[in-house]
Design brief:
This protein has about 350 residues and is mostly helical. The protein is about 80% helix and about 0% strand. It is built from 14 helices and no strands. The protein has helices at about 5-30, 35-60, 70-90, 100-110, 115-125, 125-165, 185-200, 205-225, 230-240, 245-255, 265-290, 295-305, 310-320, 325-350. Residues about 170-175 have low confidence and may be disordered.
Amino acid sequence: MITGKDIYDVLAAIVPLYVAMILAYGSVRWWKIFTPDQCSGINRFVAVFAVPLLSFHFISLNDPYAMNYHFIAADSLQKVVILAALFLWQAFTKHGNLEWMITLFSLSTLPNTLVMGIPLLKAMYGDDSGSLMVQVVVLQSVIWYTLMLFMFEYRGAKLLITEQFPETKKMVMEEGDAAKKHQMPPASVMTRLILIMVWRKLIRNPNTYSSVLGLIWSLVSYRWHIKMPTIMSGSISILSDAGLGMAMFSLGLFMALQPKIIACGKSVATFAMAVRFLTGPAVIAATSIAIGLRGVLLHIAIVQAALPQGIVPFVFAKEYNVHPDILSTAVIFGMLIALPITVLYYVLLGL
C-alpha cells in the first residue's frame, strides 16, 4: 500500500528535476542569460558528456549475473514487437516515415525508469522492484538507446546521400553536342554508402562507447570482484551525477525557445500521451503474459511501461532535430500526470 511517505519520496525525486527545468526556462525567457547558440552548446554537452557518463555509471554498477532474464525478456519482446510493427508501417504505407518511426518507438517503449521508476515502483512493490528497474535501465542504455542512435544516424546519412543524388534531379552539362546526367546510384550502392556513414558516426559517438565499456566493466568486476579505482570512479561520477539535471536543464532551455509551452500543439500532445500511457502498457501486458510472467512481476512490468517519457530520448531528439517538440511535451506533461496514472494502474491491477 502506498503511504504518504512513499508519495513524498517520489516527489523528492521529481521536484529537483523541475527546479532545474524552471531555472533554465527562466534564464532564457525572463532573464535573457543564454542565447540560442549557447543553448545548443549546452544540449551538445549533455549529449556528448553527461548522458554517456550517466549510462556508464548505471551499467557498470549493475550485476549482469544476477539479472531477472524472464522479466528482461518480456520487456525486450515489447520493444521488438512495437519496432517490427512500426517498421512495417513506414515501409509499406504512404503515411509511414523514418522520423515518425523513431518518435513513436521512443514514446511507446522508453519510459523514465531511472528518475520516476525506481522510487515509485519501490514504494508500490518493495525493494526488489527497484533492482528490476535498474536492469531495465541497463538494457535501455546498452541496446535500445544504441539502436535509436543507429536510426538517427541512418536517417541523417540517408538524407545526405539523397541530397547529393536526388532521384528526379538531372544536371545537364553541355559540351559540344557531352549531355551528362547525374542520377541516384543503384539501391545496393546507396545502402552500402549509408551503412558506411552510419558506422563511422557511431564509432565516434561517446554513447556507443559508454554502453559497451560499461557492460564490459560490469562483466569483469562482478565476475572477479574488482572495484574501480577511486580516482577513476570519482572522475566519472562528477559528471554523471549532473547528467539528469543537465538533461532537464536542456529541456527547459528548449521550452523557453518555443513560442508555446505545448510546442507540438494540443492534438499532437494528446496523441503522444495516448501512445505513452496506453500503447506501451497494453503491448507489454501481452508480451509479459506470452513470456509467462504472472502475479507481481506482471504488475511491475505493466506499471513501469506506464511511466512518463524518458529524458534521454528527448536529448537525442534535440541533438538530431527529430520531433524535439513532441518529445519535450511528452516529458513535461508526462511527468505531471504520471503519478495519478501509475497509481490508477496499480489499483486496477491489484483488484
